[in-house]
Amino acid sequence: MLEEHFFQCPYCWEEISVLLDLSAGSQSYVEDCEVCCNPISISYDSRGAELMSFSADASQ
Hints:
By secondary structure, the chain is mainly β. Helix content is 0%, strand content 63%.
């Protein structure tokens, strides 16, 4: 079950989107910003079809 989620890049402040697989439960990974190409640490938690938490931070 994929859901599009919009958030603001922690580097360039542009609004970007990612597809989240809500059936996977908790996920953490690094994805490059589609605008400025800097690495973003993405973490989220889902239960069933509901997104419980989401964070997108500058990757260390």
